[in-house]
Write a sequence for this structure.
């Protein structure tokens, strides 16, 4: 029996939905093999990775808390990815957003003002956009590759944060830890219930998901950007300006990442420290892909990715397995997803032997 | 004079991992494939080479282990990009994330103790010649290997038939396929070679440059190597010059930190990244020069019609 790979006449809508599910299943399978190879019962480990984190109210609260920034950032990034604008520096834009928001929260003259939180929100979003405006300007006006610029700016943002919390912004009463003072209460999102950490910042994400859906599925600019991504020559012929897609894509990602950074500082962390993000900016890239660059898919992808983060923490605590497994699984998940995507456009057909 | 020697030799050494990784990527890109995963492959190479030393392998074998691990990891990208025709940007990113996770996982038991670094050579008499000896003849063998690879790759790409075939594939895989060259197979070889070189670059970091294991110790060098290829407008000699430029930048900012210029060390550490951006912007202005040696099929999936 021989097989032949052939292009499908039409991309398969069924495979488009099935691919992320198949990829997740295969990742679980590989995960079980890895756990078995490490000498842990696969079932017990998978339970600790995927079930245990969700079997308490606190676990559910953490799940949504971590999914929120992932979904928020992925929505912003997907706007650019649809137009082939590759912002992979969301981690840096998140950090700059967190820095700006914390700066407002720490130094605003009236720390009890009800305006404080909204001001921090605006500061975070604008700062993230500002950081993303650099690669946007350089790509649109100076023909410079945005992948490398966004990444280099991420390293610079990390160093800037490190300088601030080791130097000028370090809490003098903080026992020399590299962190700022705690934000005043008015600068923090109030948790829904003080027993858990989930707070009102998830509504930012809800609004972002709806906004992203409206933009990509219902707006003319969103349509033009998708055309630019799918068929650049056709887009140019139709007179869609590439620079508009570049600016919109990068600023959307920057704003989303900046808001996520603000929500981290003003939410679960309550201060600025080098641990402001466990890699949300990078993981959100994967979320955007798992979610097929559309709003609804991104929500599911974000929930899955958040579970990977929680599961990594969980197996570290209960089984002493290294948390680096989280990043390994993130990579494997993306590998499988990309491979599964192949079958949207191609199929394998058995060939009968010709006599 | 001592300071000059220190800066000169420091520059050459700091440039070495970049030379390996960027020359490898140059060959990959010349075949029309864009592998963004250099950072991940370097980390895997660094982890495996360090593991080799700890496990008691002789130094050359430990370095080889790093190089082979880099090549093996590149295969993950190769299968996705070449067989599954995946978007090469996404496949490379996946490799970068996966490699950083895998290296952290392997390195979790390495501890923080330094190892005995790769020894520098010492030629009798020659290495003791004043000035010439300390400047040129007292490096470790990998520094010379990096330079040898530069010569080898330049010769291969521009002086051999196989190099011409590789470049043809990078320009127009359809043409090469029509003539009868195995486009996919050759691209696989190029990707593997790129992985090998990135692995060597990573190994150099962990067993010679730092000799310590630190998570994510490449600190963006894989991405800088990627930028170097653009900066070099896909020419080997300019890769070499670019790597030295960045090596020099690294050493100068370290010297600056040592002198205590009153500038915070974090801001000095940011200089090489900022310089990368500036250099990219400058080089991107000259579209003609970029287009001249740019492999026309770069990052475009290719599947032979059957």
């Amino acid at each position: 029996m021989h097989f032949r790979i052939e292009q499908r006449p039409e991309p398969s809508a069924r495979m488009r939905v099935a691919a992320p599910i198949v990829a997740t299943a295969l990742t679980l399978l590989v995960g079980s093999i890895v756990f078995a190879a490490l000498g842990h019962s696969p079932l017990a480990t998978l339970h600790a990775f995927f079930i245990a984190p969700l079997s308490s109210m606190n676990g559910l609260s953490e799940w949504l808390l971590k999914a929120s920034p992932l979904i928020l950032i992925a929505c912003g990034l997907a706007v650019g990815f649809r137009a082939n604008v590759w912002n992979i520096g969301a981690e840096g834009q998140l950090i700059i957003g967190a820095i700006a928001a914390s700066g407002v929260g720490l130094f605003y003259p009236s720390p009890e003002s009800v305006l404080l939180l909204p001001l921090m929100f605006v500061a975070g979003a604008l700062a993230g956009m500002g950081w993303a405006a650099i690669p946007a300007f350089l790509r649109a006006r100076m023909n410079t590759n945005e992948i490398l610029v966004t990444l280099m700016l991420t390293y610079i943002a990390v160093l800037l944060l490190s300088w601030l919390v080791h130097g000028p912004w370090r809490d003098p009463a903080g026992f020399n830890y590299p962190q700022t003072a705690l934000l005043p209460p008015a600068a923090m999102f109030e948790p829904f219930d003080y027993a858990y950490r989930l707070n009102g910042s998830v509504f930012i994400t809800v609004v972002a998901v709806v906004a992203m859906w409206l933009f990509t599925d219902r707006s003319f600019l969103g349509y033009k950007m998708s055309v630019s991504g799918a068929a650049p020559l056709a887009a140019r012929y139709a007179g869609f300006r590439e620079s508009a897609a570049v600016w919109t894509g990068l600023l959307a990602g920057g704003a989303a990442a900046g808001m996520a950074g603000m929500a981290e500082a003003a939410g679960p962390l309550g201060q600025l420290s080098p641990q402001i993000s466990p890699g949300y900016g990078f993981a959100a890239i994967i979320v955007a892909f798992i979610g097929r660059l559309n709003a609804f898919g991104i929500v599911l992808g974000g929930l899955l990715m958040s579970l990977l983060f929680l599961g990594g923490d969980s197996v570290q605590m209960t089984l002493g397995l290294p948390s680096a497994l989280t990043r390994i699984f993130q990579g494997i998940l993306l590998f499988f997803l990309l491979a599964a995507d192949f079958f949207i456009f191609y199929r394998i057909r058995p060939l009968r032997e010709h006599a | 004079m001592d300071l000059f020697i220190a800066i000169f030799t420091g520059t050459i050494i700091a440039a070495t991992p970049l030379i390996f990784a960027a020359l490898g990527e140059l060959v990959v890109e010349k075949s029309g494939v864009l592998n963004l995963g250099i950072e991940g492959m370097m980390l895997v190479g660094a982890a495996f080479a360090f593991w080799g030393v700890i496990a008691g392998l002789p130094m050359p074998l430990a370095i080889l282990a790093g190089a082979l691990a880099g090549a093996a990891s590149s295969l993950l990208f190769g299968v996705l990009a070449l067989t599954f025709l995946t978007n090469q940007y996404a496949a490379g990113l996946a490799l970068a994330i996966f490699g950083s996770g895998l290296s952290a996982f392997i390195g979790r038991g390495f501890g923080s103790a330094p190892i005995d670094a790769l020894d520098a050579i010492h030629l009798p008499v020659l290495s003791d010649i004043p000035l010439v000896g300390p400047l040129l003849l007292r490096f470790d063998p990998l520094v010379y290997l990096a330079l040898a690879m530069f010569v080898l790759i330049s010769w291969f790409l521009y002086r051999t038939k196989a190099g011409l075939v590789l470049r043809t594939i990078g320009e127009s895989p359809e043409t090469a396929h029509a003539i009868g060259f195995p486009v996919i197979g050759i691209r696989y070889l190029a990707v593997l070679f790129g992985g090998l070189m990135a692995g060597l670059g990573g190994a150099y970091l962990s067993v010679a440059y730092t000799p310590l294991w630190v998570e994510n110790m490449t600190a963006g060098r894989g991405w800088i190597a990627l930028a170097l290829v653009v900066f070099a407008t896909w020419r080997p000699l300019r890769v070499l010059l670019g790597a030295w430029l960045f090596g020099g930048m690294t050493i100068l900012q370290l010297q600056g930190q040592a002198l205590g210029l009153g500038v915070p060390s974090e801001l000095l550490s940011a200089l090489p990244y900022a310089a990368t951006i500036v250099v990219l912007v400058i080089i991107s202005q000259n579209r003609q020069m970029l287009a001249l040696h740019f492999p026309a099929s770069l990052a475009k999936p290719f599947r032979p019609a059957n």
Residues 73-295 of chain A form one domain. Residues 36 and 42 of chain A are 6 Å apart (CA to CA). Chain A has 13 helices and two strands. The interface with chain B takes residues 4, 86, 88, 138, 142-145, 147-149, 151-153, 155-156, 159-160, 162-163, 166-167, 282, 285-286, 289, 322, 324-332, 334-335, 338-339, 341-342, 345-346 of chain A (CB under 8 Å).
